[in-house]
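Following the same procedure, the fold was encoded as tokens, giving this record:
***
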Amino acid sequence: MATPTPETRTAYPHFLPIPTRWMDNDVYGHVNNVVYYAYFDTVVNAFLIAEGRLDFETGPVIGLCVESHCQYLAPVAFPDVLEAGLRVAQVGRSSVRYEVGIFRKGSAVAAAHGHFVHVFVDRATRKSVDIPPKLRGALERIAVSKR
């Protein structure tokens, strides 16, 4: 298997600082693999709430994760401070594919990178819906063209 090339910080238009916590470490002395998915979820939803005005508590539309993937490139551990980079790779009628890079604070290359796919649905029926205009506008602001 070929060694993957780490993503660089310049590939991401949006960042969110994320401090590691003592409980993030596992018995091997680094952040456990499942915690990275919480970091992905955090950067995506913080962006949607702040920039797209997503009302996750009572709004009529919510995003459900239907796919995620993470590739681990270098270990991180408590007490590292991380920065999660976010970009949008594809926006459809009801779905969006985010790409996320996890960087040690100030590092030029990612310690991990991956993707996360949301499908936006009606809260009550769970049927897919068009992405609301405010959310779509926010997503398009961090969309990047494929290299």
